[in-house]
Amino acid sequence: MNAPTTAAPLLSARGVDVVYEPARGVRIWSVRGVDLELAEGEFVGLVGESGCGKSTLGFALTRMLRPPARLEAGTIAFAGTDIATLTGEALRRQRRGGFALVLQSGMNALNPVRTVEHHVRDVLRAHARPGERWDRASSRDRAGELLAMVELDPDVLGRYPHELSGGMRQRVSIALALALEPRLVVFDEPTTALDVLVQKAVMGTISRLQAERGFTALLISHDLGTVLEATQRTLVMYAGQIVEDQPSAALRTGRHHPYTEALLACYADPRAPEVTLGGIPGSPPDLSLDLPGCPFAPRCPEVRDVCRVIDPGLTPLGPGRAACHVRAAEVGLPVPEVEHVG
Ligand SMILES: Nc1ncnc2c1ncn2[C@@H]1O[C@H](COP(=O)(O)OP(=O)(O)O)[C@@H](O)[C@H]1O
Ligand SMILES: [Mg+2]
Q: CA 102, CA 173: separation in Å to the nearest integer?
């Protein structure tokens, strides 16, 4: 693992709130007060059950939120510039060589009537720098390089998305995301739609590219196993909040947020001598409601009175941080007292 860096982070998000307003009077708080830092070259995982706001956060960080979602509050400093409110050409300038998003389903990201070569040319032309010209020959050369980078044959250039397997489409999506040499790539469940063996191969490619090219990566996945294997640091998200932030290696042992421990219990390490599968009773809360206290309290086997009324916020635990009154008390941190509420 890389030593902690003292340099300014590449990305620093503060107080990010994202709300969906799918209908008049309906407000779904999908990301709630998220603070997040990503160091240059760091490979970070973002894990949590489905519906916890991972994709919404990934979209917010790469400025890909679309209505009915709206960034309600917060700043997103990318390489020193707040990109949260940028629009038009200023945003396009930051995106070029800045940040990119890879989605779960390569088919949805690709246009069914354009060949792979067309897709690459479209990206290069859409983001061309002033004076930069991408003609057929030069964009084909660049497309060939990009395909080789993601381990695809040159003959893929002339194919349409429906002529590619799921794994190949995902490799094309990765190539397109890397075409402008971004410093940050957010991968949103990049292998979830693929067969197990293809998943492994595509994750291997992502890890190799990250190591070789040194971009900062945020890997979003509901699968803790994938995240622990690939990343240096893991963020655990629950009900729109980051509830734990640890070096990935540290998650394999020690005490953690009860939600993290429940996720760990669900994840069976196939190399472990004995495999026990846990489960998490209940489901994440309705995000249209006000959630006082710790959002996990209703499902937490260790819940105390204080958990139901006061949000713990991230505090030191082990080498990282967790948002849990119970764990804070265990390591001797002060925990507010509340009157028993029946
Ligand atoms: N298009 C949408 N319209 C309304 N609400 C949405 C929409 N997409 C997501 N949400 C809300 O945001 C929450 C978080 O969604 P999402 O970010 O996709 O979670 P995850 O990626 O962790 O599965 C969902 O539980 C849902 O309440
Ligand atoms: Mg998602």
A: 6
What is the rounded distance in angstroms from the CA atom of residue 246 to the CA atom of residue 235? 7
Lowest mean pLDDT among 139-148, 275-284, 285-294: 275-284
Q: Whose CA is closest to atom 16 on ligand 1?
A: 53
Cα-trace Rg, the chain: 21
What amino acid occupies position 59? Answer: F
Q: In whole angstroms, how far apart are CA 329 and each of 27, 254, 306, 309, 341?
A: 34, 15, 11, 16, 20
11-98+180-330, what's its fold? Rossmann fold (3.40.50)
State how far the Cα of 332 lies from the Cα of 280, in Å rounded to an integer: 28
Residue 130 buriedness (CB in 10 A; 0-12 / 13-18 / 19+)? exposed
The whole-angstrom separation of Cα 28 and Cα 151 is 41
Q: Where are the domains of the chain?
A: 11-98+180-330
Q: Are 240 and 53 within 8 A, CB to CB?
A: yes
Q: Which 8-state DSSP code applies to residue 293?
A: S
Residues forming a β-bridge with 245: 235, 321
Q: How far apart are CA 325 and CA 303, in angstroms?
A: 9
As given in the structure block, the two tokens for residue 139 are: 């964009």
Q: Which of 18, 52, 227 to mutate to test the pocket of ligand 1 (most atoms within 8 A of CB)?
A: 52
Assigned token pair, 153 = 């044959």
Is there an atom of ligand 1 within 6 Å of 287 CB? yes
- C-alpha to C-alpha distance for 287 and 298, rounded to whole angstroms: 14
Residues written for the chain: 342
Tokens at 81, concatenated: 């510039």
pLDDT tens per residue, range 147-187: 999 999 999 999 999 999 999 999 999 999 999 999 999 99
pTM greater than 0.85 (yes/no)? yes
Question: Cα angle vertex 321, ends 315, 326, to 5°?
Answer: 60
Report DSSP letters for 84-97, one per residue: TT--HHHHHHHHTT
**Is 50 touching ligand 1 by the criterion CB < 6 Å?**
yes
